[in-house]
Amino acid sequence: MLGCHIGRMFQVSVAGGSYQDGLTALIHGTPPGMSITEQAIYGDMLLRKPGADELSSPRKEPDLPVIYTGLNAADTVEGAGNKNHTNGTPLTILIPNLDRHFIHIKQYQDTNRTPRPGHASYASFKKYGPDDDAIGAGIFSGRYTSTIVAAGYVAKQILKAHGIHVFSYVTEIAGVGCSQITDYAAALAYTDRYKTMRHDLDPFYQAVYVNKRVHMDMRFLEKMAVFAEIEKEIDPIRDSAPHMTPEAIQDKYGVHSVVNCPDIDAAQAMVDACNKVSATGDSAGGLVEVVVTGAPAGLGEPVFNKLDAELGRMLGIGAVKGVEIGEGFKVKDLTGFENNDQMGAENGKIVFKSNHAGGITGGLSTGQPIIARLAVKPTPTIDKPQQTVDKYTMENKALAAITRRDPTIAARLWPIAENYTAMVVLDHLMQHYGYQAFIKK
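The structure corresponding to this sequence follows.
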């Protein structure tokens, strides 16, 4: 299968499917000497998986990662202290499927003759034929985004070491938007608090990693033995989740309990609006914003590999139907004078008067914050009857309503956008440093 690879200097290949034995992220370009743990990777991955909140489906996918290659198995010299550090070789992250049961497979077998509107099932059947991995939608399932989050987490850590921060949040759900975010330092602090809250309240984060049931000193086979036990305990572990009221969460962490939006009042209005839509059996879309701060000027390549074009590849994230940079489609309503970001010199540095371009002009970063915005479609799985066909006989069929669903995908998509952006920016940062090394000073 083509299309499962990205990058030039920082390269990522993904594989697997929602009902195969698991998923994999294979990363080339990780520098040696990094301390990467499975707990930290899972800390990002849990942000995209279904939770126990009102905007999530009741699915139970733990998505626990295992680092399989790319780390030192022991100190390279006695007392070196570099056990479990990256060693510069390809880093492989495995994500075993721990909630795969025949009863669920049978449900797909019984319904795979009739493609679900809004899903990839019809198009993938026409592309790959009867052997198309249609159980759980295969690699077209939202489950594959766990690989993007895993690889993107690694990219974020490399970027942080160079003073570059990538973060994301929700700005609109079900037509309800928040106030424009302009204080990016405060927004970064907010998203960090939101992540801490999710870590503290996630039962698998606590039971598996904080309690050291799985840890970095275990061998792969030891971890797999524990994973086999965990698969049998998914319900009890989920039921052990710490409980806090929304009010208590806001008091302790200063964040909304469900939606990662720096405007807490708007976040609650989003939830209320989405619940009204969901009560009718339908679903809602939304907007997600990604911000990059600290990136130097000059990232990107001309013509086909402009930085904004590379970020536009986030259309490859399932459910994303539009990507805009800066003012995006609003530029059609602006004049040139209004849209241009004028410049001035202060203390020997260039200072921009505005950032309508979203930190990118000519496909190259300007040194300003990079701003990307993603339009997320409504969840295609809905609790309403729909019309479809039998893909083998071409007979018209009625598709029954489906109750197990996400009222919106937008609330879960922001960590995917955040980590995808990190992969793109890191790839271009590595290319940029290479060019700079050859420029005569």
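Residues 410-438 form the longest helix (29 residues).
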